[in-house]
Records
---
Amino acid sequence: MDQKHVEITSHHLLHLHLISLPHSIARAKNNLHVVLAFSPIGDAFRERLRKFPALVNCCTINWFFSWPADALYAVGKRFLHQVKVDEFVLNEIIAACPHIHSSVRKTGDKFRRDMGRINYVTPTSYLELIKTFTKQLDKCATAVETSKSRYDTGLEKLNFAGAWQ
């Protein structure tokens, strides 16, 4: 009796599956969302739009604009908080980063007007600015520490040599 019950159950499940398959497909079509992210830099984006016109005709395109100054400041503060410098200097560095980014963007606009070429200044380039700054600061701090150590060692040797006279 158990085996007959299992066969009936599997038969009913197959029947339910066949009935619900079109419904499941319809729900998936109605609720499926695909996010594509392309960089507008270079010819690759233009080429993709030429090859696949549905990207323009059947899609919603969201263009992301530049970040406001307060967002740039907040991001700079978030990523630069671990830098080991005086608090006053750190606040000045954090305040300078949005200024640098916005001045590069303005210069890029001038470059486009004067030369007809586009220079993209994106949030990613702002993050690269911060990353490059922290790397360079670490590199310079290491060089200063090495020089200080050599200077201290030289002073010790001079003091030692002077003690023998």
---
Amino acid sequence: MVQTLRALYTGASKDDYRMFRSVLAPDFHAFDGGVDYPGVAVLDYVKKNFQDKGYVFVWTVVNPTVHTVCNMAWITYTNIGSLADPAGKHVPLKWLESAVLQKEHGRWLIRFFDSALTPGSQERLRTFLMSPPLPATESAPHR
């Protein structure tokens, strides 16, 4: 199940909709940051508002706890990561996340995903996104 979530993050970080969709149940749904996203709309949001503008997310599943009953499972974990802007400046972030998975044809698929930034990360992200970009570095004069 942890590998299924890692595949989700790999697909999201590479804008790889095929990989992203490959681990989703047909009725996949997500709550992210208090917003309701049906299907791949959560990836559309991340791509449009961050990745298309040169921002890079890093996501890492840490301390997963998995519960399984028959072909259903739920997982809770901490997601330790960061966001880097186009200039390379980054902010460390931490999310509390959970997912509901269903085993279909021998594979675990994500049916529901919930993600919330911790309060400290919310404030760091807000400050990071509102701060002016770093000035461009001038190259040394050639002699």
---
Amino acid sequence: MRAFLALLAVVGAVSGFQPRASTVRSPTSVHGFFDKMVKGMEGNYAGGDDSPYAKAKAADDRKEAERKKKSDERRARGYTELKDVKAKSFAKFKYSDKQGEKEEAAAAAAAAKAAAEAPKKKKKNFFGL
């Protein structure tokens, strides 16, 4: 009797850890809840050369070929290295501030004219004498 109860306890414990097969089906898979959404998403990915995906891929390939061509041209020209530079060069402004230069020149000229015309003042003595 004890052996039977021990065997029953062992079988119960072992069967408790066994996974159970589930046969529950989802109502969305049965009734096709997402069918319209899937058709809409797959509509743009129809196969062939006329599909939007194929057209976009071809445009990307053309852009990549142009980029690679420009890169190869730059590489063929070579790069200026520091040891190749013989003279100092400074950055050149693309746009010059002509109005600002004129105002600065006019202000400098006015200051020079005022300094030349100003009469020299006589120094005052200690008590204004």
